[in-house]
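My current task is to audit a protein record that another person submitted. My question to you is simply how this chain folds and whether the tokens agree. This is what I was given:
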Amino acid sequence: MDRFLAISPQSQFWLFNLALALNILGMVLTDMWLPMVVGALVMTYLSVDALVRIRYVIPMKKEMRDLRHELEKAQRQLRESSETSYRD
């Protein structure tokens, strides 16, 4: 999912939506239907993909990173408490 690393996911979303709008405008104004339909389908896929990454994937990765840190902290505390119980 990290195909376009040069710009932020939000910028990608707006860029793909703008390209989709221009594609649809091109379909209305020209007779080049087949290339415009293909372009519109590709832009729709890219727009939906960017939206899914913004709404779901990026927050999920942040949540997983936070949970991993909490798990490591709990494991560290468990190790420390078990070490102190063996000493006593």
Notes: The mean pLDDT is 89. The first helix runs from residue 9 to 29.
